[in-house]
Indole-3-glycerol phosphate synthase (Paeniroseomonas aquatica), 276 residues
Amino acid sequence: MNAPIIVTPSHAVPDTLARILADKYEEVRARSAATPMAEIERQAHAATPPRDFVAALCEVVADGRVGLIAEIKRASPSGGLIRDPFEPAALAQDYARGGATCLSVLTDAPYFQGTTEHLKTARAACTLPVLRKDFMVHPWQVFEARAMGADCILLIMAALADRQAEELEEIARSLDMAVLVEVHDRAELDRALGLQTRLVGINNRNLRTLQTDIATSEALCPLVPADRIPVAESGIRTPDDVRRMAAVGARCILVGESLMRQPDVAAAAGELVHAL
């Protein structure tokens, strides 16, 4: 496979994200050299069928409940080491027991201490649909995501040009995978609405400062069209936060660090799920 060309959006990419992306392109070059495109495609098509990520969220929202995408991650650039010991299978089972609708599993190694095995192990331990949480920049990664069992991928508009996002979404759809497109501001939201996916994630974390403010979701959720599903991400810690998000139309939430730091993640997930 030819080395991928770095294509960035027209606006400046924040320094932290730019550094992560530069490393990610190098990682893709190395991993795709070890497993060529033809082989990773073969593995993707041989994988067990995907679980319906969007339908799972729609079902709980239609029932008036909170759609919790519960995240499994060991560390983060902003939070450092979050959980140790770290047992993805047990966490997945606890999240399912606590009422989570879907899982999100970090697979980025340099910045989040994630691995593909974390996703495989978590998915095998439960029946919930699973999002591969990583920095997706190249088609090879989409096939890799399906090969490892992912049911959904994340596309971060701050990291992608429009044509990149469209290409990655098209591949995901061809593999019957869902796409969660992530935005941080109005300009990115407008671009994201050019994609077909119904899942629009609004990240409350500022990519420059790494600080979170759920007012971001309060500002952007009302701008999400009725045929899309807003997902509030980052900075959601309490039932009150969940109610603030629901008040502006985000009945689906993605929560990671605040759950990962709890001794009983099943109970913590249950508090958020039953906040309404």
